[in-house]
Amino acid sequence: MLLIKNIMDKKEKTTTEQLILEAAEEEFLTKGFDGARTTVIAERAGVTHAMLHYYFRTKEQLFERIVAKITALVAQTVLAAMGDPQKPIVERIRSGVASHFDLVAAHPLLPRFFLNEVVLRPERYNLLNDSLKERISALFMQLQTEADRAAGAGEMEAVDMRHLFLSIVSLNVFPFLALPFAERLLGDLAGDREKFLAARKAEAIETILRRIQKQKP
Amino acid sequence: MLLIKNIMDKKEKTTTEQLILEAAEEEFLTKGFDGARTTVIAERAGVTHAMLHYYFRTKEQLFERIVAKITALVAQTVLAAMGDPQKPIVERIRSGVASHFDLVAAHPLLPRFFLNEVVLRPERYNLLNDSLKERISALFMQLQTEADRAAGAGEMEAVDMRHLFLSIVSLNVFPFLALPFAERLLGDLAGDREKFLAARKAEAIETILRRIQKQKP
DNA sequence: ACATGGTTTAACAATATTGTTAATACAAAT
DNA sequence: ATTTGTATTAACAATATTGTTAAACCATGT
Predict the structure, then answer these.
(1) Mean pLDDT, residues A32-40 taken together
(2) What is the C-alpha to C-alpha distance for residues A212 and A90, in angstroms, rounded to an integer?
(3) Are A29 and A113 in contact (CB under 8 A)?
(4) What is the dihedral of CA A208, A212, A216, A217, to 10 degrees?
(5) What is the pTM of this model?
(6) CA at A39, C1' at C18: how many angstroms apart?
(7) Which residues in chain A are contacts of B169 at CB distance < 8 A?
(8) How many CB atoms lie within 10 A of CB A187?
(9) Nucleotides of C under 7 A from a protein CB
(10) Spatial separation of the C-alpha atoms in residues B132 and B143, rounded to whole Å
(11) I need a labelling partner for A141 at 20 to 30 A (CA). Which of A172, B78, B152, B191 fits?
């Protein structure tokens, strides 16, 4: 019976195919496409490297499976940076910075992978079709309108939301890219990882809030 | 006569060795160590790939020549971000942000290369010896003291200079990492590259200055 | 002219890396 | 029990990539 077989598959597949995918994610995430070796991935998965080709045919196809997963996660963090649409704009920005930071902190290897493997191969991974571009554009327009209204009402300073967005992502993402370096450069700063991350999060929030704060003069 | 020969060398060496170095810089900078191919480098330089090995023995040795150059440039931008020690602290920070941005803008490929090839290979490129670490630490301590004094005098808000420094670098560097992506995501924002860069520079300066601005209430 | 020494070439060697295939094991269905 | 199809293995193939070498080249100094 087919149903039974499928159920079996779903239970059993926790083995080879999954093992390869997990090993591949680890390897690709840390070493990139060029640096990763299919033989190493197979070793880490504890299977012969012929298995890898049996399940995924080529290195590229295996890689694309990983790219798809990572891309979905990145999209999540981007959306997070836009904040909760329910709240008023200033609070929306504050919550956006905070939750975006948390998401990046939960996946610190993502940024580098995404930058190297997706951003720099626009021809291969063109995940920005026109309809998506339009939706994003509309989203920014909506944000901008709301911000302009709030600025008119004296609730915040007038800002270009696209630049603000880029600043948020910069402040939240770059420290994770630089972390291995910063930890050696500023030993005590990063001495306690927990403390350092909490401080960075607070710093990003404070910096962005001050950026949109209405000037008193 | 040896002197004459050396002079000749310096004139002639604009050929093969230099050609290889230039091609290697281009390849390593855009593709990284793993992605670069010595054969391609040789082709680009217009020499046989045996020449590459003749002058640099191995791919690694050639690579290290490039790393040395890039590292020096990165050190420059880091120093630039510290601003002109002559000026008062607030102006020092403003000029630091500006000149750091300009340096990064002049070498937009550096950040990714440095992150991938140097930051992530601490064992191979340990360019942070203890004496350098101490000097940097002292530099930050000095900056902090000056900032604390200015804060006490009501000239600026009290801040952790190391965090401020990291924010400056984040705001200035990340946009260049994300540029290829941002250009497709926010077409009109990056429509005119010149305008976009000018706006980013102004945005970074404004953001940092507001961060250190004394609150009125 | 000749010797010297750095430069260049072309062909080769060695290895790494990806991908293929034929034979086999194994589990499920009929 | 036989068939069927997937999973697995081991050995091989093909190519890419780095690195080596012997011989030729060429400018310079003697």
Answers:
(1) 95
(2) 8
(3) yes
(4) 100
(5) 0.90
(6) 9
(7) 174, 178
(8) 13
(9) 7-11, 16-22, 28-30
(10) 17
(11) A172
